[in-house]
Amino acid sequence: MADENKIVTPSDIEEAKTETVDTQTTATVENTVAEKDEKVESVVTDEEIASVEITQPQKAQSSSLRAQMKSLRDEEEEEAKEKEEEKSQPEEEPVRGDSIIEEKLAKIEKEEKMSKAEARAEKAALKAAEKAAKEEAKAVNKKETKQKKVQPKEKGKKKMQTYQHRQNKYGYAFMAPWIVGFLLFTLFPFVATIFLSFMNVKKAATGYVLKFAGINNYITAFIKNSDFLPALLSYLKMIIPYTFIVVVLSFIIAYLLNKIKTGKGLLRTIYFLPVIIMSGPVMSQLLDVQNAAAEATQKVSGAVDAADQYSNIFIMQMIQSYSAPLATTLAQVFDQLSIILWFTGIPIVLFINGLQKINVSIYEAAKIDSANAWQIMWKITIPMLRQIGMIITIFTVIQLGTYEAINPVYTLILEQTGDTASGLGYAATYAWIYSIIVLIIVGFVLLLFKERKPKDIKDRKRQEKKLAKLEKQQMKRLKKQNRYAKKEAKKYGK
């Protein structure tokens, strides 16, 4: 009875608290709960006391119990008040054990927050990767849909193919004569001359006999033959000034004709007439005059023969009235002028067409900017006619090469092929050497008429190239990033 009726005092509770402070939080809570339960169990309620039959010796005990109950209730009320006051007042520094526990709890909370932030960042990266993948898929789908829309149906394809085949057939049919002529008269002789230039050709009873000669034909052309190199040098001396004079004179005449407002057609026909007339009997007479003048330069007694040849032409009859030296010089000048006028007909027509294609508003804008005629010609007209001038120059070089008075190599080729059959190999070598020189001249003309870009445009192009390289590098980096994002998305998706 003494153990059961034992009363737990507040001092006992405080001692229990101090003993359990250094233990873990869970143990302290459980101990305090157990102690409170023991208090409640140790206290005897009024109802239990009333239910017990109180004897006279026990009345004193009951009164003492009631006094103890009141004291306990008062203590509990005081403790509740103190707790409320502690809540209202600022918190005091915790006990050492409580501070350690709180620090551990704070660390745990921080770690939880960090893990949550990392999880959020990972989720955001996954969402971004998914969005990028979706956008790429959408772009691919759009391209595929566009291609599908653009592509016609199978029936339409067949119809288009049949139409294209028909058009191709018609085109090849119209080109067939030119293709046959090119194969027979250009490609076959081209290949045959290469073959013949390394062969010795001899005529036998059974036909032509070909023997491989190697480089002997080229050695004879440059070393053994004394006529080929002088003829080649004379051609180079003649072709450069003649080409320059023909191109410049034809440009000047075309420029002046373009400025004329009335009678353009008549003047064009007049300047184009030498091209037509030179193919007739007049050409043969001029060639006779030319040959006579050439002989007159080589022989003193040939001046009389030249005068006899000149007598057939009215202009030559006028020249013949002067002294012999003056007559020869005038005959040569007339000869050169006739050749130049003969070769200026086609270039004049081409230059006029090029001048008419230039937009008039460009000239008007230049005049508004106070540009004179000289500046307009050098800054607008000549640059705009660069391509046409290149074509005319190449055409003139090739056309002058067919004229025997300017190109003595042409006469050597004809003599080698016309005299004997054994000269076919030498003629092929001469032709190939001449054609290589013509190609070199044409290459020089192409370089001369090439468009020269200013420094600003070159710098811009360099900058554009650098920017293109940087863009390529950025695209590569973006592709790598997209691949890495896709890999991460696949990993987290799994």
TrEMBL record:
Its main location: membrane. Residues 145-160, 475-484 have a biased composition (Basic residues). The lineage of its organism: Bacteria, Bacillati, Bacillota, Clostridia, Eubacteriales. Residues 53-66 have a biased composition (Polar residues). Residues 1-98, 137-161, 471-494 are annotated as: Disordered. It is found in: Cell membrane. SUPFAM superfamilies: MetI-like. This is Sugar ABC transporter permease. The chain crosses the membrane at residues 170-198, 239-257, 269-287, 337-355, 426-449. Residues 80-98, 485-494 have a biased composition (Basic and acidic residues). Residues 21-32 have a biased composition (Low complexity). It is a multi-pass membrane protein. Gene3D superfamilies: MetI-like.
